[in-house]
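User: Here's a structure from my thesis project, written as structure tokens. My advisor, Dr. K., wants to see whether a designed sequence matches the one we expressed. Can you design one independently, without my sequence as a hint?
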């Protein structure tokens, strides 16, 4: 992953961290706000190609918004084995950097201008990067693709 970041001119910081039971706990461990943790979701298109959706903590994909931006009628989250085959990463560790295939990246507009934490390709680590640098390095499409998550009981 470090080589992949360097090849795109990205400065990254990788930090070891203990497992967390929640977004709030993970943010506390990293010393950031929950919205500073960005989930990289691999999304499957109906033609068996994929894309990455970058969504900040406390928000989830808005499927209608993402479909409109991508210009397709169907998108879905793939099964864990398909996500692994498409990216080389297990769920919970997925990141565009170093993916086995450079799938298109769609970033939620709320991450622009932020230093973000995300998966680091392996469990027990977080990767920090400037969102704007990541967006530029991957030619990401920036759009409104998320909605606030529903509160959990």
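Assistant: Designed independently from the structure alone:
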């Amino acid at each position: 992953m470090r080589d992949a970041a360097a090849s795109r001119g990205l400065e990254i910081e990788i930090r070891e961290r203990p497992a967390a039971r929640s977004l709030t706990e993970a943010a506390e461990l990293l010393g950031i706000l929950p919205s500073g943790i960005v989930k990289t979701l691999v999304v499957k298109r109906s033609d068996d190609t994929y894309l990455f959706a970058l969504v900040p903590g406390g928000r989830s994909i808005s499927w209608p918004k993402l479909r409109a931006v991508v210009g397709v009628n169907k998108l879905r989250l793939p099964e864990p084995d398909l996500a692994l085959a498409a990216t080389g990463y297990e769920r919970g560790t997925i990141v565009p950097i170093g993916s086995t295939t450079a799938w298109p990246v769609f970033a939620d507009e709320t991450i622009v201008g932020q230093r973000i934490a995300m998966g680091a390709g392996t469990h027990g680590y977080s990767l920090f990067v400037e969102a704007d640098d990541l967006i530029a390095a991957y030619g990401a499409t920036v759009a409104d693709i998320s909605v606030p998550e529903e509160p959990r009981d």
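When you compare it with your expressed construct, this may help: The mean pLDDT is 95.
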